[in-house]
Each structure stands twice: as structure tokens, then as C-alpha cells.
Amino acid sequence: MVHMIKNKPPLTVFLLCLICIVTTLFYFVYYIRTAELVPDSDKNYEWSDLLDHFNKEDSCLSDYAGQELNNLFDDSILLTTVHTALNIDASKFVKYNKIYGILSLTDWVPRCPKGRLFNKLKIRFDMPLDLKNFTGEVCAQIIGPQDYLPLFLKQGCIVKHIEATKEKVGYLSTKAKSEIDNMFCNGGMPVTMQFKTVIDKSNFANYLSSVERNVIYIHLLWAGCLMLFLTICIIVYAFLYTEKQTEVYGEKCTHFLRK
Question: pLDDT tens digits, residue range 38-61?
Fold first, then answer.
């Protein structure tokens, strides 16, 4: 074995890499099996990706004319609400004190869809009454299926519901830039808005379910066992091959000395 390590460094390095891979796989097997909570990194990444998707869309603001928002999702769909900071062009929103709308999901899907796909989410926010000191940042509520929105230890911002003597409601709609719709924003005005995409990762509260953990555990365990078997086979073969070569080399030396 020592002879193999000294005389076959590429094989030695390869075996060390395999051993490191096997060790890592079994470490993750142990972690998935024993950890109380395992963060769902896909869900955390999807939220940033979703906000970035909204920032790239075309947006339109118009008068709210009774557009149907209440029946956007079936009663069987479990909904959740996320609060997030949103920067808007205040000069185009000042005529309204409440904003309702639809965010398009065209050209965007979750990384790991768990069921039915949706193409819209709801959004709403209130405009401040005092616009003199308004910086353009509002706290928007995004409402949609639980599979599409993350959970947080605490919401990203605080919603302040404004009680106005007379409600003036605006309707916000978006569409993907790749989507061709000649009637989009017909009667409205284009607006710009930017969601805050810098998020404190420690605030996420998304964890893998027991079913997801079992699936990952089984796959990692099989992969670890397979890699371990492969590593053992290579080590045994290399050891036997090296011993054989040593014996052949010794016989040749003995034969040469006898001559």
C-alpha cells in the first residue's frame, strides 16, 4: 500500500477526492436525519428571484373600475400574505390613497413546483396622507398561494392602513416585457416601481417538510453507499495490482542477480 502511495500519486489524489466525497455525503445524511429544522434554500432563493422578476416587468396604473380581484384564487388554495418594501414614483400615485392590483407571473415559475401553477399574484398598499415628506417607499402586501410565497420570522415592513375620508382607489397591473398585449395600459399610464431585493437571510422561516427530508435522505444515503463501494473496489484493486507488480519486479531482480 505504501508502495502504491509513493509511486502512483495521481491515483492517490483521486482516492483522496473520493474519500472526501463519501465523507461529505454521509455528513449530509446525518445532518438531514438528525437536524430539527432544515432550511429550504430553494424557497429563499425563489423570493429574491420573484422580486427581481417583478422589477423587470412593465407596470400600468389606472382607475379602479371594479376589476375582479376577490375570486382570483379558488377557495381550496391556501393563501399567505407577505409584506415587502416597494419604491414607486410618487408623482404618478398621488391622486390615489389605495392601490389594488395584479402582478403577472408570465415567464416565471418556481424552481420546484409542488402542484398547480399560477400566473398571477395580488398586490395592495396604501398611500400616505402626508405626501410632503413622502420618500416614495411604501409597504406593499403581496397575496398568493403558500407554495409561491415565503415565510418570515417577521415581515419585511409594517403596513400602515390609511383611513381616508374618501377612498380613491387605483388599479395596478403588470406584464412581462416578452408578452405582446396591444391593449395593455389602454386608458392608464405607465409607472415604474422597484421592489427591495436585498433581504436578511436570517429572517427566512422556510424549512423542508418531513416528506422532502425523507426523499433527500434516501437519495443521499444511496449515493453515499454507492461511492463508498466504488472507493473500496478501487483501493482493493490498486492494492492487489501493486502487490502483483512488486512480486513481478522482485522476481525479475532475482533472475537478473542469478545471471
Answer: 888 888 888 889 999 999 999 999
